[in-house]
Every structure is written in C-alpha cells, then in structure tokens.
Design goal:
Elements lengths: L1 E5 L6 H10 L3 E5 L5 H11 L4 E5 L2 E3 L9 H4 L4 E8 L4 E10 L1 H8 L10 H7 L1 H4 L2 E11 L5 H13 L8 H8 L2
Parallel strand pairs: 1-2, 1-3, 5-7
Antiparallel strand pairs: 3-6, 4-7, 5-6
C-alpha cells in the first residue's frame, strides 16, 4: 500500500518515511512548500488505489499496519486513527488517514467544494463522504515530537485562528522546546 507523506520540511520527515517503509508502505513524498489545498489536490490526483496520507510530523508505530487490513477498511472511504498528540499532551485524532480507491474517486469530483484552508477536514464532512467515514481507536503514532520552533509557532497560530487553543497544551510544548 502507498503512503503519501506530506511534508513542509519537518525535522521528522525522514524518520516518518523510514518507519512507514519498515511497516511495508511504499512512500510517495509530497514535500513542496505550497498552499495546503494545492498539496491536497495533488495528493487526490496522484492517489489511484487504497492508500494513506500522513503528515511528516507524525512518527508512526507498528499499529499503522491496521490501515492495510482489508477487513478493517472495507466499506469505508476514509478512516482516521488516534495518535499521542504532543501539542495536546493527550490522545487525538490525527493523520494517518486511510483513503479507499472509491473515496478518492468521489473526492476528485468534489475538489472545487473543499475548504482551501482545511481541505481534508472538509472532505471528511462532505455529504458524499460522511456515511463512509470512521475513526478507529488504535494509537498509530506520535504527533508533534521534535518539531522546529517555526513549525510549533505555525501550529499555535493555526489553533488560535480556529479558536481551538483550549484543547492544546502549549505551556507543555514551550517547556519541551527548552530541552
């Protein structure tokens, strides 16, 4: 199965790629610095079979292999999993996201209807997708470990813009950044 690894130069890109390969994924690196909608559109246009899309700031563990289990993924267009989210200092739903071939086909027809700032989230919420999505309560990695200060700042600004700061523990992140 292919894993589309989206990166903007995170420090953890290579370890994420290495882990994915160790767990049997063929990695396609999408590492251009571009607007998220452009990168997401490129992903949708390149992915033609069941696959996962994963952010480079996620370090997967062996449980990511669940995305390759046809019995688990059957009947779903998109599935997300849990990770230990450093930014929350708690569990959270992050990438990887499993995409079925059929889900990719549906989404390619809806690219113009996706929110350019949150394309994957809006894809998940499309009427054509919502009945075919699932969250699986399996911890498949760690999100946000060993990030560059500018990436942490970008993450903070995003959460401020979305009014989600109450769900994150940036005091904890600031302490970790001192190490």
């Amino acid at each position: 199965m292919r894993a589309f690894l989206t990166s903007i130069g995170e420090k953890t890109t290579e370890i994420c790629k290495w882990q994915l390969e160790r767990f049997g994924f063929e990695v396609v690196l999408l590492d251009g610095v571009e607007p998220w909608i452009d990168k997401y559109t490129r992903f949708l246009n390149e992915a033609r079979e069941d696959c996962i899309r994963i952010d480079a700031d996620v370090i997967p563990n062996k449980h990511i292999k669940i995305a390759q289990d046809k019995e688990v993924t059957k009947d779903y267009y998109m599935i997300n999993f849990r990770s230990y989210d450093i930014y929350k200092n708690d569990l959270g739903a992050t990438s990887p996201i499993y995409y079925s071939k059929r889900g990719l086909e549906v989404l390619r027809g809806e690219i113009d209807n996706l929110n350019p700032y949150r394309p994957e989230t809006s894809a998940w919420r499309r009427d054509s997708m919502i009945e075919h999505t699932k969250t699986i309560e399996v911890i498949t990695g760690i999100h946000g470990l060993y990030q560059k200060p500018e990436d942490v700042e970008r993450h903070k600004k995003t959460k401020e813009q979305r009014r989600q700061m109450a769900h994150y523990d940036f005091a904890f992140i600031d302490k970790l950044m001192e190490l």
